[in-house]
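hey all, quick one before standup. I had two proteins in the batch that finished overnight and I want to keep them in one place so we stop losing track of which output belongs to which input. First protein below, input sequence then structure tokens straight from the run.
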Amino acid sequence: MKSYLVVGLGRFGSEISRQLCRLGNEVLAMDTNGEAVQRMAPEVTHAVVGDARDKDVLKALGARNFDCAIVAIGDNLSASVLATMNLKELGIPCVVCKAYDDTHRRVLQKLGADRVLIPEQEIASRLAKSLSSRNVLEYIELSENYGIVEIAAPKSWVGQTLKELNVRAKLGVNIIAFRRGGKIMVAPGADYRIDPEDVVVMLGDNRQIAAVQKL
């Protein structure tokens, strides 16, 4: 079980607080809005009214003892910056921040935030990648240029073994699993022969994945 401090209980902060708690983690959610805190209290480990711009408030809450802090103040640049700065100075191992545009993201990165995301941008990017090709079933972004994708097996692969295809050497992607019906085969061997019903789960950079989609 990990411990998380979530600062800001708007839609994003509230949802991530709920999800982290449902996954069995300890979650302390805080906001300056008493009503937001009251609504969240039944769904997390602890919920408190507090201002993360005040380092003494964070110290009193034992912020430095948390594994990760999430700054979900996306629409207030000064509050987001001060909260991030305070959390980094307190030595929290991982600080994840929500930003509302690229300028906000760059500022938070300069302050040392371990990860900065623009939720709407990331969702749009993932959806665009999923919709850009008919055979893409699911796309999980690992970084800006790298991801895991599920695609229907290309017709040119059907009937061939992984050894015969040698996709890692030829295309640079790594096949990590196959899914057929409700069954999943993880780390298939070189003699695995691809079936027309197979869904391929592969890992690679976006250019490599795009090359496979064109087969």
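OK second protein, same deal, sequence then tokens:
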Amino acid sequence: MIKAVLFDLDGTLMDTSEGIFHSANFTVSCLGLEPCHDEVRMRRFVGPPLKDCFRIVYGYQDDALLDRCVEVYRREYERIGMHLCHIYPGLEEVILALRADGVKTGVCTLKYERLARMIFAEKHMDALFDTVRGTDDKGRISKTDCIRMAMADLGVCASDTLMVGDTVNDLEGARQAGVAFAGVSWGFGFEKGDSLGYGTLIGRCQDILALVESR
């Protein structure tokens, strides 16, 4: 029986692409480097830890440069990027339905936890979640860590928990934590028809309710 549903933030709960892409290209431009305007390539910026995002999309390898990128990105994201986002249509109603049925809800994100909480406060979404877990300012907390901490917050075990996410990072975090997984095709990673190898791929937010009811 599913007692708790945990959501990834970027690309699962909210379309944060405008703010993320702006902040990433602002960062590299500030450092005198070439921005990326290929949307398909930029979509790969969402999901991994922030340092890895700059490696994957821009090809940077120097650790000192990557640390500087993270510093500038976080400053710009807090100034501008965090405000450029919105919840996907229908998800608020799904979350409210889950909570009305006694299911606990939480967020597990690789976004800096303080920023995630600020976004939810600004969008008046605080009351939708029983816990919010993200990474720290050094990026040392993994998706698996977030899931385990959220389960501890909610007092549930792995067999009671469903993780919902849009990328392989979410899938691997769920697998390593031993929780059920639902991959969504409306975000930045998975697409309709993908074979996940673990969990279930869904294309509508209402499918989350059906998955919870079926377990």
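Flagging for whoever picks this up: The chain has a mean pLDDT of 95. The first strand starts at residue 4 and ends at 7.
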